[in-house]
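ok so for the tutorial part 2 we go from a plain amino acid sequence to predicted structure tokens. step 1 is just haveing the sequence, like this:
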Amino acid sequence: MDPKESLIEYPSDFPIKVMGATHVDFAATIVEVITKLDPTFHAGKMESRPSSKGNYTGLTVTVRVTSREMLDDVYRALSSHHMVKMVL
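step 2 — the prediction. this is what the tokens look like for a chain of 88 residues:
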């Protein structure tokens, strides 16, 4: 398959899982990071789930992506943030 071909049709609502240490500002910080790239994003497009011991928080964020480049930018912005441990 041509690497430029995509299995994702754009625009698309794309779910991304973000994990980080539990912190009072974690969710708000992730909203801030994403809204720089997707101005339509808001906290209502995010689900939060604590780990079993409460040390980590998992967020599922649904981002409206309009291109592969935008999706890559969102992953890069999240992955490079100091509060984020993992992005799936």
